Amino acid sequence: MLPPRVLKNRSILASAWFGACCEGTLSLTEYYITIYFQGVRGFRAFRSGYLMVPMIIGISLASLGAGFATTLVGYYMRKSSYSVTPQSSTAPLQPR
Questions:
Q1: Does residue 87 carry a pLDDT above 90?
Q2: Predicted pLDDT at 95
Q3: How many Cα atoms sit within 13 Å of 38 on the Cβ side?
Q4: Which residues are within 8 A (CB) of 37 and not within 5 positions of it... i.e. 6 or more apart?
Q5: Which of 24, 44, 75, 90 lies 20 to 30 Å from 30, alpha-carbon distance?
Q6: Confidence of residue 86 (pLDDT cuts 50, 70, 90)
Q7: pTM score, two decimals?
Q8: Average pLDDT of the chain?
Q9: Are 70 and 63 in contact (CB under 8 A)?
Q10: How far apart are CA 91 and CA 14, in angstroms?
Q11: What is the CA radius of gyration of the chain?
């Protein structure tokens, strides 16, 4: 739980809202891609998980890169606005 004085800061509140929306999008993508692979494409659970590996590796590498870039530059808001477009285009790029 955050203290109320921290929540009054609009940049903290906006970044928390942005992070929640991005995480929600990512969670829904991970959830429904596996359903698509198993239900529509007819793959077994193991193959569905195997096909998720490129997305998981990409997200992990992007998170590490963003952390290093934030450490070098010192601020994060400009880079966080660039992450919306690649994140929304990861689902159609999954292997078929």
A1: no
A2: 58
A3: 13
A4: 43, 47, 48, 51
A5: 75
A6: low
A7: 0.62
A8: 78
A9: no
A10: 25
A11: 17
